Amino acid sequence: MSLSVVILAAGKGTRMRSSLPKVLHSIADKPMVAHVIDSARQLGASNIYVVYGFGGEVLQQRITGDDLTFVEQVEQLGTGHAVDQASPFLTDDEDVLVLYGDVPLTKVSTLESLLAAKPSDGMALLTVHLANPMGYGRIVREEIAGQQQVVGIIEQKDASPEQLTINEANTGILLANGGDLKRWLSNLSSDNAQGEYYLTDIIASAHGEGKTINTAHPETEIEVEGANNRVQLATLERAYQARIAEELMIAGASLRDPARIDVRGKLTTGTEVSIDVNCIFEGEVTIADNVLVGANCIIKNSTIGENVEIKPNSIIEDAVIEADCSVGPFARIRPGSVMKQNSHIGNFVEMKNTTLGEGTKAGHLSYLGNAEIGRKVNVGAGTITCNYDGVNKSTTTIGDNAFIGSNSSLVAPVTIGDSATIGAGSVITKEVAQSDLALGRAKQRNLSGWQRPTKKS
Ligand code: UD1
Ligand code: CA
């Protein structure tokens, strides 16, 4: 059976107090509606219809895909009216799943259980038992053939005192046959307490036609919670992060405090990986076996090899760090950097667009930009590659086994040969041949009997 998904996203989101449409507010740096679209894709949806009301332009800029169709709901006349905007696109023989752009944490496994619950001649509803169902539509059941079957949904504002005691609530998520859905939607009326076309009224229509309405349930309430303001958004963010932290631990990573890690993208960890508190992972990050990540590190779109130690307060972005390396504390590895096996970057070293050869060390206080650095090089403290002349960037090339004395300025473009030595404090502007010693600094003069200035009275 082919599946289409209709995502309701027409709410303005006034309570966000934002110019951005509500569904573009993010969980883990990804818009809420993008989480919902991801879930729809994981279910194998062939078409996804996003019903929008406000900010259609920015929505279609930020959210893209061949499988997406944006459908405008010009006036927000209710959830039934919203789904009906997609009716012209729906076919009679497919299943249609209704999701919500501001309910981002529904698990794919929960939605799969909803798909499994739908009888061939009936529909399926995702419902949840709540201690306090205030505000939710209530699931009305009647005994049919010895079973408590769903016969309708009554909205809070339309419910009798007796119906208000029902604690099985409507999540809004439902699944129906496309032909059935279109027929039921075309018969909706707005004759109710809110004067809206309620999607929930299709349940009574289904029951009236003798269809069976089965239910499925989420594992936890947070899966069906929406975000109307930034407080609720922050609650969902924490729940999402807790879920990711749990997945990482189940996969074998040790988190010193699962409440103090943030993953804003996809983090993949090997075995014996330990992550200390307050680390942030962004984009795609892959960490191999036996890696230690110290406190307060930020790692974005990078690959970390086996047995690497990243010491506290290091920032790594768009970089490859091969096996056995050590980084930090307080290191900054910027885009385009590669640390070959067993190399070392120490405190207050910044690297950008630079390759550090195998076994090479830059332990302290350096800037290495646009550099090709060979194997087993020692880069002394305070070494600067002067890669920028104010207009162009140039390359510094350093051969294997070179020794760069402390506080050297290497003015690019410049090449330093294999096994060359640079005296401390040098400003190097010319090529240094293999094995040569280069000294590019003023000669020391000592003046004996030097009198210091005295204070003028
Ligand atoms: C709806 C359900 C209620 C359920 C609750 C769960 C109906 C009539 N009621 O109530 O049974 O318990 O959700 O949260 O369906 N939307 C549009 N266009 C519209 C109206 C709504 O896109 O014209 C979108 C909203 O942006 C929102 C979602 O649909 O994302 C739900 O709408 P909302 O008005 O919040 O419905 P509730 O009154 O909460
Ligand atoms: Ca609501």
From TrEMBL:
Q: A GO molecular-function term, please? A: magnesium ion binding
Q: What is its EC number?
A: 2.7.7.23, 2.3.1.157
**Names of required cofactors:** Mg(2+)
Chain segments carrying region N-acetyltransferase: 252-457
- The region annotated as signal peptide is none
Q: Which residues bind UDP-N-acetyl-alpha-D-glucosamine?
A: 8-11, 22, 73, 78-79, 100-102, 137, 155, 170, 228, 334, 352, 367, 378
Keywords tagged on the record: Acyltransferase, Cell shape, Cell wall biogenesis/degradation, Cytoplasm, Magnesium, Metal-binding, Multifunctional enzyme, Nucleotidyltransferase, Peptidoglycan synthesis, Repeat, Transferase
Catalyzed reactions per annotation = alpha-D-glucosamine 1-phosphate + acetyl-CoA = N-acetyl-alpha-D-glucosamine 1-phosphate + CoA + H(+); N-acetyl-alpha-D-glucosamine 1-phosphate + UTP + H(+) = UDP-N-acetyl-alpha-D-glucosamine + diphosphate
Q: What class of enzyme is it?
A: transferase
Pfam families for the chain: GMPPB_C, Hexapep, NTP_transf_3
Q: State how the cofactor is bound.
A: Binds 1 Mg(2+) ion per subunit.
Q: Write out the GO cellular component annotations.
A: cytoplasm; membrane
CDD domains linked: GT2_GlmU_N_bac, LbH_GlmU_C
Compartments it resides in: Cytoplasm
Catalytic machinery residues: 364 (proton acceptor)
Q: Which family does it belong to?
A: In the C-terminal section; belongs to the transferase hexapeptide repeat family. In the N-terminal section; belongs to the N-acetylglucosamine-1-phosphate uridyltransferase family.
Under what name is this protein listed?
Bifunctional protein GlmU
Origin species, per record, is: Colwellia psychrerythraea (Vibrio psychroerythus)
